[in-house]
Description:
Blueprint: E1 4-6, E2 9-23, E3 26-39, E4 43-44, E5 49-51, E6 57-59, E7 71-74, E8 78-80, E9 85-87, E10 90-93, E11 105-106, E12 111-121, E13 124-126, H1 128-146, E14 157-160, E15 163-168, E16 178-183, E17 189-193, E18 197-199
Antiparallel strand pairs: 1-2, 2-3, 3-12, 4-11, 5-6, 7-10, 8-9, 12-13, 14-15, 14-18, 15-16, 16-17
Amino acid sequence: MGSATRAGRSTLEDRMATQTLTLPDGELEFESGGEWVRSSLPEPDPNWRGSDSNGHEHYYAQGADRYPTLKQVAGEPYWCDSCDDEHVDTWLECPICGEQVTPGTRTPEPVWVSTGSRYFWNGEPISNERANEIIAVVQQARDEAAKLSERPSIGSRVLLEGVAVTVLPTAEDAAADEVTVMRDGSGATETVGLDRLRKVRP
Length: 202
């Protein structure tokens, strides 16, 4: 699709991304549409650096004061007949010599703009609410299947609140449904209930 200009931006290309979740009783399909949009207005160039005719150096800086070596100057108010309103022009000057300086700009990077999404169940369109219900049932079933029914073997890997940990020998006086695990990196150990642990998916 060719690019088209609209209200200060150009649409580079429309795309439709599709994801499919195959379940025992059906197929859930998700379509997400969107487009890459690039503004036709230039933006400040963070790499800009230059000098005025008197040799005073100026540059772009990160933060609230983008141009620390320049000062903003406002002209006299004037009436604009085109929009029937008062305007005040502003520009940047070198505070040392008073020369007007125009910082460098660049073309903005395109931004992805979503144009909406749709769900289908076995090829038939369904509401987002119904799709969320189906996804919630699937997630609950997966969580139930990942639960541990007995203490895992020492040295095995399990998930604690979604993070992989290593099973250590558990103290003899610990409850039967408690497991001691060690976190990666920090080496911190803790004894937790078996109900908080899940199997690591292969």
